Amino acid sequence: MSEAVVAKRYADALFQLGEEKAILEQLHQELNIVHEVFQGNEQLFTFLKHPRINNERKKELLVEAFAGLSTDALNTIKLLVDRRRTEIIPSIIDHFVQLVNDAQGTAEATVYSVRELSEAERQQLEQTLVKRYSKNKFKLNNVVDPSIIGGIKIRIGNKIIDGSVSGKLDRIKRDIVTAN
C-alpha cells in the first residue's frame, strides 16, 4: 500500500477522533508544532529510523520532546514508531490539516510578491479569494520573492495563479519560441 494512502488513513482516523472528542482545533495546533519539529530536524528522522535503537527508547525521546502534547497526539506518534511508519508523520499531518481546513471552510494560500503585502492588500486579496473559491476564510502566507520582478503569484494547493511579471515574460518567451 502506498505511503500516501496509509498517511491519509491515519489522518482520517485522527480527524474522526478529534471530532468525537471535540478537540479538533487542539489537535490541529499540536500537530502543526510536531510538523515544524519534523521538518526542521533531520537528525530526529535518522534517530527514529535507526534499526539498532529499540522502539521503547525512541518513544521515550518523543515523550520528552513533545511533553506538552495531548495523549491522543502523543499516542498516535508512538503508534507510528511501533509500526515503523515515522517517515510518514509529516504527510499524515498535511492530510489532517487539509481535512480540518475543509471542515471549517478554510483554505491556505501562499502569495509570492516582491515585497511584504500591507494589511489592506492582504485583506483585499483574502476577500477576493473567499468570493472566487466559495470558502469562509483564507489563510495567507506571504513569501517575499524578488525574482518575480512585479505582481504576485498565488499557490492554492496544487493550483498556481501567476500574475507576476516574470511569469508573463516566460509566457511571451514560450510563445516566441513555439512560433518559430
UniProtKB/TrEMBL annotation:
Question: How is this protein positioned relative to the membrane?
Answer: Peripheral membrane protein
What is an example of a Pfam family matching this protein? OSCP
Q: Which SUPFAM superfamilies match?
A: N-terminal domain of the delta subunit of the F1F0-ATP synthase
Instruction: State whether keyword Heme applies.
Output: no
Name where it mostly resides. membrane
List the InterPro entries hit by this protein, alphabetically.
Answer: ATP_synth_OSCP/delta_N_sf (IPR026015), ATPase_OSCP/dsu (IPR000711)
Keyword Transcription part of the UniProt annotation = no
The record's keywords, sorted A to Z, are: ATP synthesis, Cell membrane, CF(1), Hydrogen ion transport, Ion transport, Membrane, Transport
Q: Where in the cell is it found?
A: Cell membrane; Membrane
NCBIfam families for the chain = ATP_synt_delta (TIGR01145), PRK05758.2-2 (NF004402), PRK05758.2-4 (NF004403)
Function in brief = This protein is part of the stalk that links CF(0) to CF(1). It either transmits conformational changes from CF(0) to CF(1) or is implicated in proton conduction.
The UniProt entry's sequence similarity note says:
Belongs to the ATPase delta chain family.
Q: Which PANTHER family match?
A: ATP SYNTHASE DELTA CHAIN
| Protein name, as recorded | ATP synthase subunit delta
Q: Which organism is it from?
A: Virgibacillus natechei
Q: What is the lineage of its organism?
A: Bacteria, Bacillati, Bacillota, Bacilli, Bacillales
